[in-house]
Amino acid sequence: MSEEYGNNFVVLTDENGKEIELEHLDTVEYNGQTYMAFIPAEMSLEDSYELIIMKTELEENGEEMLVTLDDEDEEAEMFQIFSERLEESFEDEE
């Protein structure tokens, strides 16, 4: 994970060196893994968005990094979990 600034925003650098600013929405520990849900930081309320789900992995040097989910079943399961949690949190705010 790249430099973190602010409470809920991170800047990640992809494998091509492109930086993207994301807003962290939630973290879930599931089956021994840590998963995190994000949305792009620069979007308006009218924009539709795609939930970005990543998991943490340890590099050989012991540093933690975020990686995308390659398994479609894992991705679908985590999307369902995060969707339910986010829906509940929005209902609680009302």
Description:
The chain has one domain. The termini are far apart. A hairpin with a 2-residue loop joins strand 3 (19-30) and strand 4. The chain is α+β, with helices and mostly antiparallel strands and 94 residues long. The protein is globular and about 45 Å long. The chain has one helix and six strands, in the order E-E-E-E-E-E-H. It has one helix at 72-93; strands spanning 4-5, 9-13, 19-30, 33-40, 52-58, 64-68. The protein has a six-stranded antiparallel β-sheet with strand order 1-2-3-4-5-6, with helices on one face.
Primary descriptors:
6 strands, single chain, 94 residues, six-stranded antiparallel β-sheet, 41% strand, alpha+beta
Layout: helices, strands, pairs:
Blueprint: E1 4-5, E2 9-13, E3 19-30, E4 33-40, E5 52-58, E6 64-68, H1 72-93
Antiparallel strand pairs: 1-2, 2-3, 3-4, 4-5, 5-6
What is the gist of this entry?
The chain is α+β, with helices and mostly antiparallel strands and 94 residues long.
Q: Which consecutive residue ranges, at least 5 long each, have pLDDT under 50? A: 1-6
Structural class category: alpha+beta
Count of discrete structural domains = 1
Please provide the ordered H/E string of secondary-structure elements.
Answer: EEEEEEH
Radius of gyration: 14 Å
Report helical residue fraction: 10-25%
Shape descriptor:
globular
Strand order in space, largest sheet:
1-2-3-4-5-6
What's the rounded overall pLDDT mean?
84
Tally of helical segments: 1
Strand content: 35-45%
Distance between the termini: 33 Å
Number of strands: 6
Major β-sheet, in short? 6 strands, antiparallel
